[in-house]
Write a structure and sequence with these properties.
This protein is an alpha/beta fold and 337 residues long. It folds into 2 domains: 111 residues, no CATH class; 202 residues, 3-Layer(aba) Sandwich (Rossmann fold), CATH 3.40.50. Helices cover 44% and strands 25% of the residues. The chain contains 10 helices and 11 strands. Strands 5-4-3-6-7-10 form a 6-stranded mixed beta sheet, with helices on both faces. The chain has a 3-stranded antiparallel beta sheet with strand order 1-2-11. The chain has a two-stranded antiparallel sheet with strand order 8-9. Strand 8 and strand 9 form a beta hairpin. The radius of gyration is 39 Å and the shape is elongated. About 7% of the residues have low confidence.
């Protein structure tokens, strides 16, 4: 209610100047009552005079209130809310994120997957006008979220993302095919896939280059990011009773296919050996692929004149009814002492 009152605007604000005339009308009504009072000199009528005087002054007050509310109603008070509708001629983005066990590597602090998830969410936040979806993959791909503008919902799904221990391996080709199939039918000026992986493809259902060529025919560009460092790292693996333990592993880097994937589709390849270089890769992609945005502001107008017109009628009705009742009461004979 208070929020609505603060947002009130008037369609005809000049009408409010009529409020200044109300005190003059009330002053005239009061003088009229006083004049009548001076003509009453008979003692038995003193009580009647006092009652009538009160009723006429009361009528003037109700009339003034009714006039004030009526004038405000004539000024057409309104509550105006604006809503900005965004229209996009932008880019459809699918993110394919590797969640194989090697993504628990400790060469990124606290580990690769945590840093990758954080920077992915920052990348999403930097593109509020684009529809973004996501697939995760280890030994097979699985969807995390469809193309959407609801980035808050997508980020929640990213937070819940788990390492794919059950499907060991790195299925880059199927991941590209899965992401491409979700973006293919979209009507957009530009479609891109951001592929983030820390290993070489070792699932050969669909070869990565074959998937890249198919994506290129569909007009999809792929940006590839190789995350991790060369050498030996510690990863977390499930033990005999399901408890995670640390295990030493040599990095499996084969950047040549990732370079070819990007080149085939017109994208770019980045090697991220640290949190900063991964952030720089996301930032570069963000700068290369920008969207155009148009906005339409829609105004919703709620008329509030009835909030004042109805009380104005009620006040006028009360002021009209009460004085005759008081006059009848004054006319009733009273016993003399």
């Amino acid at each position: 209610m208070l929020e609505t009152l603060r947002d009130i605007e008037f369609a005809h604000p000049w009408v409010l100047w009529l409020l200044a005339a109300i005190p003059i009308l009330l002053l005239g009504a009061r003088r009229k009552v006083t004049g009548k009072g001076l003509r009453v000199t008979v003692r038995p009528a003193v009580h009647e005079f006092a009652t009538v005087q009160r009723s006429h002054i009361g009528f003037a007050g109700w009339l003034g209130l009714s006039l004030a509310l009526g004038i405000i109603a004539l000024a057409r008070p309104q509550n105006i809310n604006s809503e900005e509708k965004r229209e996009f001629s932008g880019i459809e983005v699918m993110i394919a994120l590797d969640v194989s066990p090697s993504m628990t590597g400790d060469d990124f602090k606290p580990d690769r997957i945590t840093v990758a998830k954080r920077l992915t969410k920052e990348f999403i936040a930097s593109r509020p006008n684009d529809r973004i979806g996501m697939v995760a993959f280890s030994g097979r791909p699985y969807p995390i979220g469809p193309l959407t503008l609801d980035h808050q919902w997508l980020n929640k799904n990213i937070n819940d993302l788990m390492i794919g221990y059950e499907d060991g391996g790195t299925a880059i080709g199927p991941a590209i095919a899965s992401a491409a199939s979700r973006i293919d039918k979209r009507d957009a000026k530009s479609k891109i896939i951001v592929l983030i992986t820390d290993g070489a493809n070792n699932v050969h259902d669909i070869e990565p280059l074959d998937a890249a060529r198919a994506a290129s025919l569909l007009g999809i560009k792929i940006y590839t990011i190789a995350i991790g460092t060369d050498g030996t790292i510690n990863i977390r693996v499930p033990g005999p009773f399901g408890r995670l333990s640390r295990q030493r592993m040599s990095g499996e880097f084969d950047v040549k296919p990732l370079i070819e994937i990007a080149k085939t589709t017109g994208g770019e390849f980045y090697k991220a050996g640290s949190s900063k270089s991964l952030a720089d890769a996301f930032e570069t992609i963000n700068n290369l692929e920008r969207t155009t945005q148009t906005t339409t502001t829609v105004y919703r107008v709620s008329e509030l004149f009835h909030w004042f017109a109805i009380p104005a009628l009620i006040a006028l009705l009360i002021g009209t009814i009460i004085p005759p009742l008081d006059e009848r009461a004054a006319a009733i004979p009273r016993p003399t002492r």
